[in-house]
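User: Hey, my collaborator sent me this sequence without any context and asked if I could get a structure. I don't really work with proteins. Can you help?
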Amino acid sequence: MDTLMNYNNSEGVQYVPSEFGMVPDPDNMYNNVAADGFRGNFIGVVGRRAYDARLYSPFLQTWNGTAQYRAVSMLLPMRDVYQDGPSDPFWPVYRELLRSDHASFWREHPDLKAVQLTDTGQFRGHMQQCYHRECDDLRVVTEDGLLFLKKTTDAVTTTLLRLAGGGENCTDGPISSAPPTGRSVLQVATIAACLVTASLAVILD
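Assistant: No problem. I've predicted the 3D structure and written it out in structure-token form, which is a compact way to encode the shape of the chain:
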């Protein structure tokens, strides 16, 4: 996950390089965003087509996008991105999708599944001027941005619970006998550990 609170439903605030429109992708990101007036109202999901599907498909299903909160996929066509990507004619475009931590997984261990969830950072609204600058401060925290963050957090949590087996495998179990003062902490820790285990099972599969 990388930059998740920049939400702006106004037309024309989302920048997408025009080169993205040339990529032969059935879910072409550029065309998708252009058709909606270049609004900054979506979460970007970056992954490798088919290979990372066990991560991005359940997330997209859980997200259940609406006109207010959309999800836009940006999927690369190769598994070993750093080995096969540079010879692809659209490598200059795909390289723009390697700006965050997910790319480290793909580079060092291509067999590991990884996706990036992003509000597109410096390509949206005020972040085109303020990304990694002093003007990126608490003044840019808005109710719309917080609701967008909540939507993302809920979708990620629900997705992980589904990957863990519908959530029944992430119950509090024996910790119900713990003292009340420590019970809530133990519950959170136990569920978090279960979610991490579920994630690793998919990533390493």
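In plain terms: The beta strands are 42-48, 70-76, 116-118. You can pass these tokens on to your collaborator as they are.
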